[in-house]
Amino acid sequence: MADLPESTCRNTNVVSRDIPIDVSGDDSNCADYSGCSSDMPDVEIVTEDDKSSSASDSGSNQLSKSRRLTQSKLVKYASKFLDDTVPFTKKIKWLPRLAIVKHDGTVQCHFPTDMKPHALDYVVCSEKDDIDPTDIPNIPPLQIVMLIVGTRGDVQPFVAIGKRLQADGHRVRLATHSNFKDFVLDAGLEFYPLGGDPKVLAGYMVKNKGFLPSNPSEIPVQRQQMKDIIFSLLDACKDNDPHSGVKFEVDAIIANPPAYGHTHVAEALNVPLHIFFTMPWTPTSEFPHPLSRVKHAAGYRLSYHIVDALIWLGIRDMINEFRKKTLKVRPVTYLRGSYSSPPDVPYGYIWSPHLVPKPKDWGKNIDVVGFCFLDLASSYKPPESLLKWIDAGDKPIYIGFGSLPVQQPGEMTKIIVQALEKTGQRGIINKGWGGLGDLEKPKDFVYALDNCPHDWLFKRCVAVVHHGGAGTTAAGLKAACPTTIVPFFGDQPFWGEQVHAKGVGPAPIPIDEFSLDKLIEAICFMLKPEVKERADELARAMEGEDGVAGAVKAFYKHFPVGKSKDEPDTTQTHHHSGVFSIRRCFGHA
User: Fold this and answer.
1) Res 579 pLDDT > 60
2) Within-domain flag for 479
3) Do residues 263 and 151 share a domain?
4) What sort of enzyme, by top EC class, is this (predicted)?
């Protein structure tokens, strides 16, 4: 990876033509726990165009000298970026030297090629399974609120977890978008509406692969969605049941990171918080942050802190407005780990350890619980036409992109149909929110499907092609289906890489590179006997997992039994009030 030229790095007040990040907001009267000044300098992150123009303006001799200087400086900056004692005001000055924001909104990190991992902090923790049933305390009946932001794929695992908690005698309220009200209520859980529209969020994220907008005109839409979510959280934890009017007094909060302000509500109400997520958000030296681009393993851990800092720069004004006006607590500046993995908040990761084992540098407050499946197949009644079509020939290939809007559904449908025809395969096309499957002429080898539970459908398929949402990926692997992932944004490229690394699918095909030739190549790869054998082997390994039970056990294990909400929180440091979590900014399909 090329180093940033000195001409780009030397000015900490770099002007970005594409994606400005304002860090000059008012932080007066902030609770400044990190020792940094509340007077934030005006710094804007360098983009690709800035880097290119700066490089072209520099002479070759000056550029060579600058790169030599930058090599040593970057090692210094990267090491100090992980130091809690370094003021945040200094860290944000280093951001233009360490990263640029790509056109698609992802963050490309720049580290010297000769930087050694020991230059950064790395701690090897226990390798044993941290969830020991013998250690589970006796939990009294609780009133639990789950603050979940995202698409259907984000909500579904928490419905499964909520049902298990409710079966254990707890009252469970799932607070999420109004789009999923019927889904939550039909599962027998209490529903409370949060702000934000998942269709708007998903559409935004398709155009902006990371958390930053590629078009400044989209910033107001993005920020309003975020604000609607943040300012609905407190009511979700305090209001009576909107259906029955029964009083609700929260005893514990479970949340996923895109809820943004969940840690602040937990602080204000002095209740325990447990975060669960379907993508890695805790710093590790084993793989980079899913929203970053890092070529060298030495920079993997640092990538989490850089993304963390960039996110905070984009949301701190809304968070502090929420703290002051709604929660009536002091605003804060910034603390390291404010999104990723604060030391006092337990995290549970919802994926199979057979697919991605728990990193050795994750501590005992972090659990990899397994995929969380919700049984929808047992109550599903498929249309007769679907049953007849499936029985009429060989197992089909499933192709669908869930809740994600497709930019050119007609063109993509043509590519899918042609690929199936050229490979001699039958295919089920899931229309989803993208509008796929509208054929000019009916094809007997293609079935267009509106909606169908994956746990029913995938075991009737020979292979699957999808966007790479964690839940869809899990369902395909559980059904022993060779998998091709066509990532749109966020963590989807990460899951595509994991599937490919296990040998159960080809390299992921980014949606911008989706083509007839690549889809044909992917289908041929998935149909290889050795790929199916590896898919069968992985499915057998996952068969004994119960991610829902693992998540509930993790929640019980970390719950502070015996602590009253009215007691001052002595087990958690003031870092808790500086913790702000976010997923891709906008939902995960």
Assistant:
1) no
2) yes
3) yes
4) transferase
